[in-house]
């Protein structure tokens, strides 16, 4: 079982590696168009921002910090609130934004 685990682990690590055999590394230099690279030009992004602006401030501040990449404990320290409260506010902000987006699209 140990050897099987090690073999599968190594196989998974090799699968994460990208090999580009094309001339001048064409595939490594292709821009990633299917992701959220330019949200300002996206209509959906503007809808999300409009819905976010309608959320209560006490929910919106931790949510925006989380979206910006802060960890839960960092948000809790910065806002001087318990970590459970941070998680709760982010959850409720997400739910409120989802409700507004559903109502906005229909």
Automatic annotation (TrEMBL):
Top-level division of the source organism's lineage: Bacteria
Any single biological process term in GO: DNA-templated transcription initiation
InterPro entries per the UniProt record, alphabetical: RNA_pol_sigma70_r4_t2, RNA_pol_sigma_r3/r4-like, WH-like_DNA-bd_sf
GO molecular function annotation: DNA binding; sigma factor activity
Domain RNA polymerase sigma factor 70 region 4 type stretches: 49-96
Pfam family, one: Sigma70_r4_2
Name of the protein this chain belongs to: RNA polymerase ECF-type sigma factor
Organism: Fulvivirga imtechensis AK7
């Amino acid at each position: 079982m140990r050897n099987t685990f090690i073999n599968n682990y190594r196989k998974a690590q090799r699968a994460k590696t990208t090999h580009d055999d094309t001339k001048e590394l064409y595939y490594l230099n292709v821009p990633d168009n299917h992701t959220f690279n330019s949200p300002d030009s996206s209509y959906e992004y503007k809808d999300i921002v409009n819905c976010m602006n309608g959320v209560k401030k006490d929910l919106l501040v931790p949510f925006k910090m989380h979206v910006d990449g802060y960890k839960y404990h960092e948000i809790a320290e910065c806002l001087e609130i318990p970590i459970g409260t941070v998680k709760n506010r982010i959850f409720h902000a997400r739910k409120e934004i989802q409700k507004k987006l559903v109502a906005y699209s229909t």
